[in-house]
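Researcher: We plan to redesign the surface later, but first we want a full-length starting point. Tokens attached.
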């Protein structure tokens, strides 16, 4: 039922700071005031719990609105169906009570046979009961501001009502709060998002989300010292949603801030308030459930199946994961659009951009969807489709890497990182998909080795490998990759893993795996300062690994690593080996191996006393690397070499420094041998 209300109660007033300013909403409040003054129809939109009603009420509450304007607020109460005729009659009565008689004629477009229920109207216990006036209600008011609050349950009916009202009553302005716009002609839309969880750039102090959380906790008697790191963690987990922050503040009487953050890691739907301003705000589950109740069946299916995504996703991924015998592929895109309009999903990227949009589900909506997915018995099959999709994503990323599109390969992994890691994490927990997860990790070898994620990859492999069947054909390759990634900080374990992988590689006749095992042995030998053995192993790796073999470093990378080893004692041989590496057919598509070979040539020139040529080669190699690939350790190695050359050129009479060339070995989570063009060891 629509109900008119008088302003706000004490709990409503407490959302104000500095007079009439809402916490963190100064810009939105100013924009809304300006829009209401300049336009006859303004709609405040946003997801559940973002504070739409509070912002609108701040504009429509005296003295903010100013004298001479009559304000009428009506809001919808869930559970009572209405048609257009009943809705129009209710609004007409409220306007008449405010001094503006309005009696529009015409049949109910919805064809409703609604009749007013007998007895008193149902209402929220916390809902005020009287119309809001910015002064005494005049007989013929100069202007009326009609606040239609929370119109989502009667969204369609309101469209016709507002259109008729604006056409027939020039003295009326309409302010609407809803999760999506009405879609009328001159409608001005103020989109309300979550509060920022980080301080504004260049501004000291807490973020707006942190200010709201701490202030609400203080008002509820919380007196502990607020740890800024814990507060920031809670705000990030709650994604700055004001309702979630207020509900979380109410739990600080029983939990510390650190304990609260831990509880929020496993779900937000349990957050609750025993005395909410609105009944549907008593828990986050109820607030999100109110949105879910208004969704069509297809939208509900898409919502719960999308909850399996851990991060942003594309429309194509959503279609693949959500479709089934009860949901056709063409039904998914319209559901995505509607869920985006209501704030369940956030569309990332600029509207109209060349790249198709990506979507991200709000954390609370994902937790709710996860509950619904389990209740529907669809979690196993949805996770199966999710695993199959992201195994394919990993395979595509490696294909991009091997065909020369290495920057695009890294961007693909960055875009899909959260869900690729979710696949691995589920396998680590023993919920299935162990071989699928390992296959994805093997396809992403370049991400772990070249992009400074060696330690993370090693840790994940050590948990994942014991979950594979003993006869899995992927086991030997997984042990090789784990050995390579852990060589820098745990050589003993690396040797043990290689000893387990080598017999399986021999029995299966896998030359690519045998060559890559030799490559890791070369890294371990170089690490223990045995250049002779390191050179032999790298040469064996280059000769054994077939050209174009996926799943690891190319022969050109092994030759480039050999050139780095030779540069320390035999610069002339290093230059020849580096040129041989650059002449390999697969080197043209391998920016990483190319950078390693150029590094070896530059260092060999430096050792031979050709400082100018060395500097020129290193600068060209660095410029080419930065233009084509984000390889952090390779970039650092070339910059170290250039710094050493610059020092040699500027230090008058000082001996030329000779940084020991270092074949890329994973160090502090960085690259692995031959995994980058790096490191000049100090």
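Model: Full-length starting sequence:
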């Amino acid at each position: 039922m629509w109900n008119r209300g008088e302003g706000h109660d004490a709990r409503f007033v407490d959302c104000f700071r500095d007079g009439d300013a809402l916490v963190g909403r100064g810009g939105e409040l100013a924009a809304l005031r300006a829009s209401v003054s300049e336009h006859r129809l303004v709609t405040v939109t946003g997801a559940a719990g973002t504070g739409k009603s509070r912002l609108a009420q701040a504009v429509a509450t005296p003295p903010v609105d100013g004298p001479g304007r009559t304000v009428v607020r009506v809001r919808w109460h869930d559970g009572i169906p209405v048609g257009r005729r009943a809705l129009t009659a209710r609004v007409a009565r409220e306007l008449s009570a405010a001094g503006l008689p309005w009696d529009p004629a015409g049949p109910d477009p919805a064809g409703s046979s609604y009749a007013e229920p007998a007895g008193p109207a149902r209402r929220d216990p916390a809902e005020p009961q009287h119309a809001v006036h910015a002064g005494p209600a005049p007989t013929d008011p100069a202007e009326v501001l009609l606040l239609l609050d929370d119109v989502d349950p009667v969204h369609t009916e309101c469209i016709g009502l507002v259109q008729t009202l604006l056409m027939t009553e020039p003295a009326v302005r309409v302010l609407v709060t809803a999760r999506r716009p009405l879609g009328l002609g001159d409608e001005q839309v103020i989109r309300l998002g979550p509060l920022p969880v980080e301080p504004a750039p260049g501004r000291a102090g807490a973020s707006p989300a942190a200010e709201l959380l701490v202030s609400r906790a203080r008002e509820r008697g919380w007196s502990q010292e607020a740890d800024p790191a814990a507060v920031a963690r809670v705000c990030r987990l709650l994604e700055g949603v004001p309702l979630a922050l207020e509900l979380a503040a109410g739990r600080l009487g029983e939990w510390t801030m650190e304990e609260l953050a831990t509880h929020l890691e496993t779900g937000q739907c349990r957050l609750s308030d025993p005395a909410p301003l609105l009944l549907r705000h008593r828990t986050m589950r109820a607030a999100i459930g109110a949105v879910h109740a208004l969704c069509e069946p297809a939208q509900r299916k898409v919502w719960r199946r999308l909850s399996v995504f851990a991060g942003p996703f594309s429309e194509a991924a959503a279609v693949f994961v959500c479709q089934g015998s009860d949901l056709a592929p063409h039904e998914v895109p319209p559901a995505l659009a509607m869920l985006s309009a209501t704030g369940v999903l956030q569309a990332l990227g600029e509207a109209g951009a060349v790249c198709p949009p990506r979507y991200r589900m709000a954390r609370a909506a994902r937790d709710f969807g996860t509950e619904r997915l389990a209740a529907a018995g669809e979690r196993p099959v949805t996770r199966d489709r999710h695993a199959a999709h992201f195994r394919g994503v990993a395979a595509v990323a490696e294909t991009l890497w091997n065909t020369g599109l290495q920057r695009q390969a890294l961007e693909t992994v960055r875009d899909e990182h959260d869900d690729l890691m979710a696949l691995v994490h589920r396998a680590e927990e023993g919920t299935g998909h162990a071989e699928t997860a390992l296959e994805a990790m093997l396809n992403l070898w370049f991400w772990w080795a070249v992009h400074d994620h060696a330690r993370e990859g090693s840790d994940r492999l050590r948990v994942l490998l014991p979950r594979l069947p003993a006869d899995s054909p992927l086991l030997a390759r997984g042990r090789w990759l784990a050995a390579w990634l852990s060589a820098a900080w745990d050589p003993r374990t690396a040797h043990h893993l290689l000893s387990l992988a080598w017999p399986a590689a021999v029995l299966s006749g896998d030359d690519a795996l045998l060559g890559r095992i030799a490559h890791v042995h070369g890294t371990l030998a170089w690490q223990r300062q045995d250049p002779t053995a390191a050179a032999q192993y790298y040469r064996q790796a280059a000769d054994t690994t077939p050209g174009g073999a996926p799943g690891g470093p190319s022969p050109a990378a092994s030759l480039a690593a050999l050139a780095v080893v030779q540069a320390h004692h035999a610069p002339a041989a290093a230059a020849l080996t580096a040129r041989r590496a650059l002449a390999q057919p697969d080197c043209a598509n391998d920016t990483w191996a190319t950078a390693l070979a150029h590094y070896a040539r530059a260092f060999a020139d430096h050792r031979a006393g050709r400082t100018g040529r060395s500097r020129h080669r290193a600068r060209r190699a660095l410029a080419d690397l930065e233009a084509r690939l984000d390889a952090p350790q390779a970039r650092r190695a070339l910059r170290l070499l250039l710094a050493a050359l610059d020092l040699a050129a500027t230090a008058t009479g000082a001996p030329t420094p000779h940084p020991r060339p270092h074949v890329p070995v994973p160090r502090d989570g960085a690259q692995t041998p031959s995994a980058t063009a790096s490191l000049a060891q100090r």
